Amino acid sequence: MKKTTLFITVCGILFCAILTAVLVWYGYFAAVSVREKPVGPYTMVYKVYIGPSSGVEPLLAEIRSSLTSEFKVKAPVDFGLYYDDPKTTPQDQCRILVGCILEDDQDGDLHAISEKYTVALFPRGMAVVADYPYRNKLSVLFGMLKGYPAVLDYATERQLERKPVLEMYDPLRGRIRYVLSTAFSNEFMLAYLEL
């Protein structure tokens, strides 16, 4: 009986240790610091997506693959620009711009790219910014629970106007960056929604 209890205790401790290590690795316990700083400009290549955020990954993969293979352009940073708060908007009505950000020296043939996708310039300006560790899709989930709300809470506390939130997924830098730009008007980005 004592061996069984000892075995169960050891297994429980090992499970907790492994779970804690996994959560640390994926950033669950990471502190989110929010600050205001200048960001951009970013050359964005994207499509409009309407629906739950869980459905954006296939569209991101399509755009990333097309830019790399068809247009020979490096676009290592994926993004989603989220217009609607999923807490107040039905999931099937959430408006999201989904795509990639081109590297500064990798503009490629923007005219040819714009025949297949929308190309826009996210202007340089001040923004509320929070960074969160990025390992894989699990990091994205934890970031939605911690990084996204941190930016919105910061903006609410300072009575900043509610704007779309840009999420940038950057595996090379190992981060997800949440950006609430205070520099552009909603009309600027709504013009690119094509709705």
Task: Walk me through the structure.
With 195 residues, this protein is of the alpha+beta class. It has two domains: 1-30; 34-190, Multidrug-efflux Transporter 1 Regulator Bmrr, Chain A (Alpha-Beta Barrel), CATH 3.20.80.10. It has five helices and eight strands, in the order H-E-E-H-E-E-H-E-E-H-E-E-H. Strands 1-6-8-7-3-4-2-5 form an eight-stranded antiparallel beta sheet. The mean pLDDT is 83.
Considering the chains and any ligands shown, give keywords for the structure.
single chain, about 200 residues, 2 domains, eight-stranded antiparallel β-sheet
- Estimate nothing, just give the exact number of structural domains: 2
- CATH architecture grouping of the largest domain: Alpha-Beta Barrel
CATH topology of the largest domain: Multidrug-efflux Transporter 1 Regulator Bmrr, Chain A
Structural class: alpha+beta
Largest sheet: 8 strands, antiparallel
Pick out the low-confidence regions.
Answer: none
- Neighbour order of strands in the largest sheet: 1-6-8-7-3-4-2-5
Can you count the helices?
5
Total strand count, please? 8
